[in-house]
């Protein structure tokens, strides 16, 4: 068991104690913290850099994390109502993330072009 004063363990615990990062996978926090501790002399600088790196990796999803269960239920209900309802539900959920929101206007054209000439998929592996 690591010593309680181990800088890496303290750093991981400090990051995970923050409400913004409490749901981030501890292994991801530890991986980032290891890199940041190796680059910096001061523990506080490593803490700040670790949080900054995690913000870049997970920040776009932070505002929507609590909605996932509701969205999953919405998708299941929409699926039961048919393809059009499912597609509408997908678009509504995709609009909550900047990266997918900006692609919504071209989705139909993109897939029509990308999948042109291919047979319908029978399964996704």
First-residue to last-residue Cα separation: 40 Å
SSE string, helices as H and strands as E: HHHHHHH
Strand content: under 5%
The level of helicity is 55-70%
Counting DSSP H or I runs of 4 or more residues, the number of helices is: 7
Structural class: mainly alpha
Q: Sketch the major β-sheet.
A: none
Poorly predicted ranges? none
Cα-based radius of gyration, to the nearest Å: 21 Å
Mean pLDDT: 89
Shape: elongated
How many β-strand runs? 0
Description of the structure:
With 125 residues, the protein is mostly helical. The chain has helices at residues 7-17, 26-39, 43-62, 68-81, 83-94, 98-101, 107-114. Helix 1 (7-17) crosses helix 2 (26-39) and helix 2 runs antiparallel to helix 3. The longest helix is centred in the middle third of the chain and has 20 residues, at 43-62. It is elongated.
Main features:
125 residues, single chain
Sequence-ordered SSE layout with sheet pairings:
Blueprint: H1 7-17, H2 26-39, H3 43-62, H4 68-81, H5 83-94, H6 98-101, H7 107-114
Task: Give a nutshell description of this structure.
The protein has 125 residues and is an all-alpha fold. The protein is built from 7 helices and no strands. Helix 4 runs antiparallel to helix 5.
């Amino acid at each position: 068991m690591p010593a309680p004063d181990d800088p890496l363990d303290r750093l991981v615990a400090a990051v995970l104690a923050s409400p913004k990062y409490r749901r981030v996978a501890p292994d991801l926090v530890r991986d980032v913290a290891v890199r940041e501790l190796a680059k910096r002399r001061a523990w506080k600088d490593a803490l700040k850099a670790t949080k900054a790196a995690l913000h870049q990796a997970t920040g776009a999803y932070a505002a929507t994390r609590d909605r996932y269960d509701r969205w999953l239920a919405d998708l299941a209900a929409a699926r039961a109502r048919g393809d059009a309802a499912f597609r509408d539900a997908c678009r509504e959920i995709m609009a909550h993330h900047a990266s997918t929101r900006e692609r919504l206007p071209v989705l139909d054209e993109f897939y029509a072009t990308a999948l042109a000439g291919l047979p319908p998929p029978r399964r996704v592996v």
